[in-house]
Amino acid sequence: MGWLEWVAVVVVGATVSGVLAILLRPPRKNLTTWKAEFYPVAADVAMSEMAAVEHAIRKWTGLREENLRAHNVSTNRPYLRNFRQIGSPDVGDKPLTIAAGICALCLQYSCNGTLEVCPLEHCRDAMCDIRGADENDSPFEAWQLHADPEPMLLWLHKTKIMLEQEGSKCKSASSD
How far is CA 104 from CA 83, 130, 134, in A? Predict the structure, then answer.
């Protein structure tokens, strides 16, 4: 049986517009599509300092509420998972843990026993999970406690600027 005959058999009893609606429907967005857009490369791949910062910026941009919602992804910090109704089974993608194990900077610097200082730590004068003197929450705590990726994004962008200017040091988290 050719593919056209197979399609004809499947379509029997269905309206043409109904079949076209199914065939033309965009794929359902979920954690897999979120990863494809915001986390397409694993953090443990060797990369430059700048590439690691850009990798982190992309991931943390994906943690903004509008991006999670656009992909039907919910957070039960520190996990990202496919959105589901209360009481329905958790099916599909394995949850993604937002932690050092998926951070290119952590894997290249803080967590690998190297003596090199993470560029973000160099920029902040503190690791991302340590509160600065003028902070209520560290950038990572802001995510864990409030689902707020903006403090981390602010510092990552400052770190990128620092790297672009090679050698200049970030001074404060206040907007310039």
Answer: 26, 18, 26
- CA distance linking residue 141 with residue 131, whole number of Å: 8
99 CB contacts (<8 Å, ≥6 apart)?
A: 78
Output the CA torsion 33→78→44→70 (10° steps).
Answer: 20
Please count the structural domains in the chain: 1
Please indicate, yes or no, if residue 24 is contained in any of the structural domains: no
3-state secondary structure of 81: strand
pLDDT, tens digit, 9 for 90 and up, residues 78-96: 677 776 544 444 455 678 8
- Residue 110, domain extent: 30-164
Q: What sections of 63-118 are H helices per DSSP?
A: 65-70, 104-105
pLDDT, residue 6, reads: 43
Is the pTM for the entire model greater than 0.70?
Answer: yes
